[in-house]
Amino acid sequence: MLSANGLACERGERLLFRNLGFELGRGEALLVVGGNGRGKTSLLRILCGLSAPVAGVVRWRGDPLSKAHEQYGREMAYLGHANGIKDDLTPMENLRIAAALNGRELDIGAATAALERVGLSRCMDFPARALSFGQRRRVALAGLMTAGALLWILDEPLTGLDVEGVAMVERMIRDHVVAGGLAIMTTHQPLALDGLTPKTLSVGE
Question: Per CATH, which fold does 2-86+148-202 belong to?
Answer without folding.
Answer: Rossmann fold (3.40.50)
